[in-house]
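Deliverable D5.2: sample structural annotation.
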Amino acid sequence: MSILNIEFKAKTNKLTEQEELLQKHSPLFIGEDHQIDTYFNVQTGRLKLREGNIENALIHYEREDFAGAKSSHVLLYQHQPDKTLKEILVKTLGIKAVVDKRRKIYFINNVKFHFDTVAGLGTFVEVEAIDKDGSIGKEKLQAQCDEYAALLGIAAEDFCSVSYSDMILQKLT
């Protein structure tokens, strides 16, 4: 499935307060997931295998690295947990980085919210405005991200320009 997202990630030290602000807007709570994202060595974009108790997927995405809301083109393959898939990916591509996080997941319509605690990195909020079938359009997705960044009190300096895997790799160097 090919999906267009406009999304942002922001570092926060107000995770609980921001989650409480969102809850005032009656979001659908999906649950709390413990996710291990294994990133693999690929020539273009990023490829990760997500293993969780709620979400399990092989995800390839291409996204520019700049702070703020940005466009992301995603190929998503959802699957049941399968250790053989991971073994194949490890043997053929090699592991680039591993991200271990606890994630609370909410939705309001087409917008997905993540309240993350990432091992070794801290706490973050992510917002993904998702257009699964091309019916929403990039402008509306951008407006949704802007609206929720304002609602959650995200300042320009809070936005992250890179993925968790890049942050983990930066810490190792």
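Annotation notes: The CA atoms of residues 5 and 130 lie 5 Å apart. The chain has four helices and eight strands.
The annotation will be released with the project's public dataset once the embargo ends.
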